Amino acid sequence: MAATLSNLIVKGCVISFEGTANSTFKYKLNVIATQFSTLKGFKEATIASLNAIKTVEGESSFKTLTPKEESAIRAFQEEIDLDKTIVQNFIKILTKEFVNKQITMLSTISIDTFNANPILCAALNLKTPEEFVRYNAYQAIGRSIVTSMGFLVQNLLLYSNEYIFDGKTYEEGDKTKFDLVIDRLGEVKSFLEIKSGFNDMDAGQVKHYADEIKLVEEAGNKGYIGITYGKKDDNTVTAGLLKTYVPNWEDKTLVGKELWDFISENENYHTILIESIDSVANTTLQNVSIVQKIEDKIAELIEVFHTNYNSLSEYYESLW
After folding, report:
1. Could you tell me the pLDDT band of residue 41, with boundaries at 50, 70 and 90?
2. CATH code, 205
3. Which has the closest alpha carbon to 228: 252, 203, 253, 251?
4. What is the pLDDT of residue 240?
5. What is the pTM of this model?
6. For 313, what's the count of Cα atoms within 13 Å in the CB-facing half-sphere?
7. How many structural domains comprise the chain?
């Protein structure tokens, strides 16, 4: 993917688009992105100047931007912070997208979408509507947030350096393609398999990745297992497996801040990342934590429950 100005323009406008951006708009954005060498230049560009882009033959490069496309471009232009780097602007738009998705998800949660298991609820001794709603709300919301967080982390990694690319586009990798590749012209390529935490791999997976790392290194590259948070001295089963099955495991694993600082080529990137995410989340959530928004939603759902059901038993019976 790479944290380039062109990719930022395309990604930012696609995120700002109301609905799903189609291939035609993405094509226009790719053409537009090639015209700029600075963030300031794109931020200050007018819609008229974008529509006036010509080919070398003097023909229009694309059909006139639609009103929705214009709105998306203007919205992203407003989001651009000229005091921040391209990478920091990526952090901003990706984090804001994540937070907004969680807000949207909260608005769609309902008792019907819980898909509650009456057997489980009985086994957990949930005796009141309040207990039932709170437990199931946190379960449903938690699952959604964890899934979305995976995509956020993936994007934060892909856009943390202008030389990072999706490993699936490379031939290297025998049975598994690596997640990320750092590929700087004229330098040794680094292949990384990314895992969320220290408990995400079993013995079979660890052995497999050790074999894949061996293959890319025999070809003259470097291979690593990257773990997005934690420390190497964490006492976990996976840490023990890495020590057992990965030769020189400490040199072949990048854990927590090691990973983020390595891929960004910035020894303070982990600090920049957290501070940037915190700032964007605080602004987007208007100084309110997501927990408070969840609790507000739970209070709303409890009222809905009491409106529609006389008791928890009545609700459980409706599930059969």
Report:
1. very high
2. 3.40.1560.10
3. 253
4. 87
5. 0.90
6. 0
7. 3
